[in-house]
Amino acid sequence: MAVPRPDVPRRIIGEGSARPHRAGRSARRPELRADEHAAALGFAPQLMAVLCEEHDRERSERAAVTAAGLSLDKEGVLARLLASHPDVRTRLHHLHARSRNRR
User: What pTM did the predictor assign?
Assistant: First the structure.
């Protein structure tokens, strides 16, 4: 076990994990690049349709939970920063931005 030195500042997020959000961000990039590649091959409409269906499914599940009188915890900022995959809304946003830029 390392003994902390008084002249060296301590890390903000846990000992041994300096900037775990960078690991999450770098893990999300390949997914967005794969979406970009699929769109470049002409599969953007199909990919966007599938992502829209997934987004609608997630929304209806949240509505069902709320209608049943249960509470649904919102995903926190830290959880989103550490996520290994981008959420559906982010993927759709990137695909929409790409389609607007191609026009």
Answer: 0.67
